Amino acid sequence: xxxxxxxxxxxxxxxxxxxxxxxxxxxxxxxxxxxxxxxxxxxxxxxxxxxxxxxxxxxxxxxxxxxxxxxxxxxxxxxxxxxxxxxxxxxxxxxxxxxxxxxxxxxxxxxxxxxxxxxxxxxxxxxxxxxxxxxxxxxxxxxxxxxxxxxxxxxxxxxxxxxxxxxxxxxxxxxxxxxxxxxxxxxxxxxxxxxxxxxxxxxxxxxxxxxxxxxxxxxxxxxxxxxxxxxx
Length: 232
Fold this sequence. Notes:
Layout: H1 3-13, E1 17-22, E2 24-37, E3 44-57, H2 58-67, E4 71-79, H3 82-93, E5 97-104, E6 111-117, E7 120-127, H4 135-148, E8 154-158, H5 170-179, E9 183-187, E10 201-202, H6 206-213, H7 221-231
Parallel strand pairs: 1-4, 1-8, 2-6, 4-5, 8-9, 9-10
Antiparallel strand pairs: 2-3, 6-7
């Protein structure tokens, strides 16, 4: 690939409007020092020095696309809670559009908190609801997706198995995107692995392929093709 071709790729990114639908979350990091063990239990005591909140899940994908010059729009359901307000603040701080974000009183905003002591991760605490969206939230998500679809060039389904993307909405969202002649890209997880039919690009990593096909050992493309044929 020539330098001019690489330059053109980045120039094209600057024109691209991307709708990202899926699970958004906060990745929180708590940094501190460990100098003693707790007298209450054989665990380290972390003297907190600082905390850092970052965009996680589909939010991180939006941030990466924005850094390449494209214009991402997130479409998701988060909790109507303090963490949801913090998430919106992080979006705004990074100049990311939030017009596709729905706040729900029936869910909590996902937070993954990592405790770092002396530069080593000691613990991760997950606060989340992983159930599929209820009927009302699902209808709101589909409606919001329909409102946004004509303003974008491509759709990314960013699935982390947290319930925003589910069997009740995936096929409908794909149908809407295809009817609008929008390219569709999928980054799947295990739960909905086989729901993403009629998309343009399906992009699991090796672990996700193994999980989705329920195979522990896959070493070549032929192994993957054979496993898919067995399912058919």
